[in-house]
Design brief:
Shape: elongated
Mean pLDDT: 86
Helix content: 40-55%
Strand content: 15-25%
Radius of gyration: 27 Å
Oligomer: single chain
Largest sheet: 6 strands, mixed
Structural class: alpha/beta
Number of helices: 8
Strand order of the largest sheet: 2-3-4-5-7-6
Number of strands: 8
Low-confidence stretches: none
Amino acid sequence: MIEVASLRYGVIFKKAFCDVAIFTGFVRDTLGITLKIDKVGTKKTFDIQAGKIQPRFDLYAEDKKNKVIVNIQHENHSDHYERFLYFHGIELLEKIQKSSNYHLNISVYTIVVLTSSDRYKKDVLITRFDPCDLTGHYVKAIPHKIVFLCPRYVNKKTPQPLNQWLQAIEDSLDGQVEEKNYSLSEISQLFSIIAQDNISDEEEILLIDEYHLEKIKQTQFIGNLKLEEKQGIEKGKLVEKLNMAITMLKEDFELNIIAKITGLDHEVILKLKI
């Protein structure tokens, strides 16, 4: 058992997965693609401006020989399915050379790692751009894909060796991992990189900042839920009062009595009567 920094935090995730061996191993076991790359880039942005969207990816690499681009994103937003559909689309638009031919001679893949929970509770979900017929059969016209991985829902049916990667990410979230449970050399290397002893003071500061930012977001989310709940209760009470007033009007109760019992204004009751 070793102490590690949690891959829940973007600064730690990028520290580990910007390593070429770890990046290529993860891509190999997620997409079935063997990349030939010398480096992994960070903080990828685009020249194309699409409305108010500012697309970006945490990690990316381009295999120029095999004509493959892979982006990896560590994500906690609730709108990740829509968000990365648009980001992925902007990536494709930027690669189009001329308007007379929209065929790309390069394949683009995006992997989104969800280190929190997800509403669909699936270990792997794939957005495919290939057309399919009414029987669900895909034709191999467009190679691009977006793969969403949620380590929290890794299970016995998750295919190996992807299973090991998701399990390793999930295990790291509590700050402790049992390295003997994993056979992949890249995962051993990953644990070595994120070992608590290998976290610099600067990275520790960034990690703490990210931790507090996440806590603020959680507090705001809980506050919004409570506000929505309160508004829902108040709306329900108002509907109940209005229905009561309508019933009393049908039974020819006087307006003053209806107002006294329901607490509604005379003006509101008159409008209901009309």
